[in-house]
Amino acid sequence: METSSEETQEKATTLKPQALAPSVPTSIDLLQVPRAVLENLLLKQLAAFPKSDLLQVTKLMGINSHLVEELIATLRKKSLVEVFQSDASPSHTHAGRVVYALSDMGSQEADVAFKKDAYIGPAPVSLQQYNEMVQAQDVRANLVTRSDVTAALNEVYGAERLISLLGPAINSGRALLLYGDAGTGKTFVATRLLNSLNTSVYIPYAVYAAGNIIKVYSPQHHRKVHQEQSQSIIFKGQYDQRWALCERPSIQVGGELTMDMLEVNHSEHNRVWMAPLQMMANNGIFIIDDLGRQPMPVATLLNRWIVPMEYFFDHLNLPNGQQITIPFILTLAFSTNLDPEKISDPAFLRRLGYKIQFQPLLEQEYTALWDKLAQGRQLEIASTSFDTLLSLHRQHEVGFYPCLPKDIVGISRDIIAFEQTEPVITSEILSRAWEVYFTADGKGGGKR
Questions:
Q1: Which residues form the signal peptide (predicted)?
Q2: What count of other Cβ atoms lies within 10 Å of the Cβ of residue 143?
């Protein structure tokens, strides 16, 4: 039950920014980033994109052209940047344009800059600007209503039993614990919660804090609402291009989560300092799935969140040994199919604002979901197949988990395609699909 690209596009066009757009800085001082940091970033841009013209450099830096010209002028005085005439053919529209490139000394300086910090992208925003924007985009500022949550969960079968619990939970801004058997839809529901918030947010490409550039925007975790605006000297109707207007982030991590992902860190081969997951998830939702399956002890992971959950801010250790404080304004959702009483102590459970148990579907909801998914695969279900299906559930004591129809319908379709039979899920095909999906005890698939 994934959202189609058409639905995603329609959603993006209806989202409105919750906060006022960040204004376009008209001076170096208003950028609130040291000039030396901007100069080094410009050197790295010209090293990566040699012989770029003013418009290209402006788009790369995400700041206005007259500020770029000011930085280039400074670098030219230091003999780090040279000016060239474009060698485009006379018929080319950019013939004769002025382009910029590094001198030999500039290339050496760029190499030094890359060794200190490999970040390349739009200029960073200051930590103060970031904190102010996150506060302005607090999800609790615009309360959601029952109709908002109902619309967000319109594709979730059995959602009416959850709406009265999830709505107040979203408005509270407090952490959630979603628990219940595997396959009951905990993660799917959690990822749909943000659809109840009909607002978009500004995400910085990077943040400058205590001598470090921290990359925040990630195409993997953030989805832009629309294309970037073109840069020009006309400021009316524009906003600071060091920010991307995005849907509220929804970040999900499971058993692969390590403590390093929750601190400012970089990959083994790339010295770009990346924001931790919770910083990327600010103003959105951060789902820790399969709680109890992570490599570290559950107590260690849960203790990491005590201060952020209580005070709505987080302390981060930086690569240079300094520490910064950032807002922790997001919906933190833990999801587990283990017994909460066995994986966490009572003191931590008390700190969780909402503990919501997920149950299997009712029979009517379950069969309706089967019908919908079969139709989506252009398949019919034989009249006797539901009797077979319910019999298998009783025989093997398997609940009506919402994950089962999608998986078993998919296997049935594979069998039908292979056998080249009519597109009908018969009792015989259903039984075969059930047999290959579940383990020998008849429960392995549903308890994944």
A1: none
A2: 11
pLDDT digits (tens, 9 = 90+) for 6-23: 444 455 457 889 999 999
By three-state DSSP, how is residue 198 classified?
coil
DSSP element (H, E) containing 294: none
CB 301 within 8 A of CB 307: no
What is the rounded CA–CA span in Å between residue 256 and residue 264?
A: 17
The letter for the amino acid at 35 is R
Domain chopping of the chain, boundaries:
5-17+128-358, 34-121, 363-437
Rounded Cα gap, residues 65 and 55, in angstroms: 7
Question: Is the CATH number of domain 5-17+128-358 3.40.250.10?
Answer: no
Helix (H) or strand (E) segment spanning residue 370: helix 363-376
Residue 350: pLDDT band (50, 70, 90) is confident
Distance from C-alpha of 232 to C-alpha of 442, rounded to nearest angstrom: 64
Q: Which residues pair with 246 in a beta bridge?
A: 201, 224
Q: How high is the pLDDT of residue 87? A: 60
Report the alpha-carbon distance of residue 172 to residue 447 in Å, rounded: 32
The C-alpha atoms of residue 427 and residue 410 are separated, in whole angstroms, by: 15
Fold of 363-437: Helicase, Ruva Protein; domain 3 (1.10.8)
Q: Rounded mean pLDDT of the chain?
A: 88
pLDDT of residue 230: 45
**Listed residue (40, 50, 38, 212) closest to 112, CA to CA:** 40
Buried b (16+ CB within 10 A) or exposed e, 324-362: bebbbbbbbbbbbbeebeebbeeebeeebebbbebebbe
CATH topology of domain 34-121: Arc Repressor Mutant, subunit A (1.10.10)
Pairwise CA distance, residues 386 & 365, whole Å: 13
DSSP H/E element including 38: helix 35-48
* Torsion sign, CA atoms 191, 193, 198, 202: negative
Residue 307 CB neighbours (<10 A): 13
State the sign of the Cα–Cα–Cα–Cα dihedral 136, 141, 147, 150: positive
Q: pLDDT at position 1, please? A: 41
Are 277 and 314 contacting, i.e. CB atoms less than 8 angstroms apart? no
The candidate with the shortest Cα–Cα distance to 177, out of 309, 369, 46, 31, is: 309
Nearest CA-CA partner of 71 in 63, 396, 199: 63
